[in-house]
Design brief:
Structural class: mainly alpha
Oligomer: single chain
Strand content: 5-15%
InterPro entries: CB (IPR044068), DNA_brk_join_enz (IPR011010), Integrase-like_cat_sf (IPR013762), Integrase_catalytic (IPR002104), Integrase_recombinase_N (IPR010998), Integrase_SAM-like_N (IPR004107), Tyrosine_recombinase_XerCD (IPR050090)
Domain Tyr recombinase: 178-398
Low-confidence stretches: 408-425
Domain Core-binding (CB): 74-157
CATH class of the largest domain: Mainly Alpha
CATH superfamily of the largest domain: Intergrase catalytic core
Number of helices: 16
Number of strands: 10
Biased composition (Basic and acidic residues): 32-48
Radius of gyration: 31 Å
Largest sheet: 3 strands, antiparallel
Number of domains: 4
CATH topology of the largest domain: hpI Integrase, Chain A
Helix content: 40-55%
CATH architecture of the largest domain: Orthogonal Bundle
Pfam family, one: Phage_integrase
């Protein structure tokens, strides 16, 4: 009996038939195209058995949701350009977008852009990360590139452009956690002594005593500070400004230095997490400093007649505009130098505050609230901030010595030193 080489199948069902070209063909409906019509995929083989197997394989891919979308395959460069502007930009914070954009523009597109998206392999990524570090990039920079492309490729998987995310398989660049040494009480006192002679001196007291992040301190407004009741509310983060030319790009300078530059980014945004939105009690000494700071700001406002921009910020430039994070960072570096204190990151001021709170034996729940740590990660953060300081090491050494070799008795200082943080009221 002759083999039936073509039969009518129900709408949407796969079909297998022998063509006039002498080959066997199969057609499988795998979904719907962008125009609403069925997405029918075509395969052809020399024999019926081969085309049947190809059709069944394609049906299994369809059922698992791993069929690649139709059309010309994306390159990595094209997908990253599409993802950064059309997917990431509308959905993430300004700071997150800035990090993604730099990683894409500076590293990922030049290093991986020529690959076809569906042919990118974990080994390509691993060699790329190593090459970044071999040519001078820090491990943290390579790790940021890894996180960026992992996020971008994850979106490509969700949209059906690729079936697996090679960045989920690739080994991420190794990061060694940097050991942070908080400033000692003597160093903090020297910093505050020099800061008292500069504008916005209370800004550094807040950083070193309460551990506010840079964006939280610069985003603070007077409406969030109640000096009579003695507390402040942390609700906003100051964002890095971003500008565009106001001159039609005719000044020959970068947008940030254009004489007619225009701000195109909002000044603040809400804190990232619920834990970040918090209320903090103010020490009496800090209340006095903030009262003095407010009086000084009133004097600046009176002197800047016609120039003062009333926006309600606690820490401002002489015209009332909020401080710029980059300028604030350089002020911190200048402060360290003027005080003769070792160099450190601005974030080290926050480490110092966290360490002091823990050493004083402040209950964990209160420390978490002051520092703005999420409940799920608070224990890990406390462990990271509980630095072993020189005074602690000396106390332990004395205690070990008295235990092993004995002594005629503890001095008053020794007795005080044996009172651990848990005994501090």
């Amino acid at each position: 009996m002759a083999e039936n080489k073509r039969s009518r199948q129900p709408n949407g069902a796969s079909s297998i038939y022998f063509g006039k070209d002498g080959k066997w063909h199969g057609r499988v409906t795998v979904g719907v195209r962008d125009d609403g019509k069925p997405d029918r995929r075509h395969v052809e083989r020399k024999t019926k058995a081969e085309v049947t197997k190809a059709v069944r394989d394609l049906e299994r891919e369809r059922d698992k949701g791993t069929v690649r979308k139709p059309g010309k395959p994306w390159t990595v460069a094209a997908w990253l350009a599409h993802w950064i502007e059309n997917i990431a930009k509308p959905s993430v914070s300004e700071n997150a977008y800035d990090g993604y954009e730099v990683a894409v523009r500076v590293h990922l597109t030049p290093g991986l852009g020529a690959h076809r998206l569906d042919r990118l392999q974990p080994e390509h990524l691993e060699r790329f990360y190593q090459k970044m570090q071999d040519t001078g990039s820090k491990p943290a920079t390579a790790h940021q590139a890894h996180r960026t492309i992992r996020t971008a490729l994850g979106e490509a998987v969700r949209r059906g452009h690729i079936t697996i995310n090679p960045a989920e398989i690739a080994k991420a660049p190794r990061l060694e956690e940097e050991e942070i040494e908080p400033y000692t009480v003597d160093e903090v006192q020297r910093l505050l002594l020099v800061a008292a002679k500069a504008p916005n001196s209370a800004r550094w007291v807040i950083a070193l005593a309460l551990g506010l992040r840079q964006g939280e301190a610069l985003g603070l407004k007077w409406e969030d500070v109640d000096l009579e009741a003695g507390y402040m509310r942390v609700r906003k983060n100051r964002l890095r400004p971003k500008y565009q030319h106001g001159c039609g790009d005719t000044c020959g300078r970068k947008a940030g230095y254009c004489p007619q530059r225009e701000q195109i980014r909002r000044e603040t945004k809400p804190t990232k997490s619920r834990a970040g939105r918090r209320t903090i009690g103010l020490p009496d000494e800090l209340i006095k400093l903030l009262q003095k700071h407010k009086e000084e700001q009133e004097r600046q406002r009176a002197e800047a007649v016609g120039r003062w921009q009333e926006k309600g910020y606690v820490f401002t430039k002489p015209d009332g505009e909020p401080l710029v994070p980059n300028t604030d960072y350089h002020h911190w570096k200048d402060l360290l130098s003027a005080a003769g204190v070792r160099d450190g990151r601005l974030h080290d001021a926050r480490h110092t505050a966290g360490t002091v709170l823990l050493l004083l034996g402040v209950p964990d729940r209160i420390v978490d609230s002051i520092m703005g740590w999420e409940p799920g990660g608070a224990a890990r953060m406390r462990a990271r901030y509980m630095h072993v300081t020189d005074p602690m090491l000396k106390r332990v050494a004395k205690q070990v010595g008295h235990t092993l070799w004995g002594g005629e008795g503890d001095t008053a200082d020794d007795a005080d030193s044996q009172q651990g943080p848990d005994n501090v009221e």
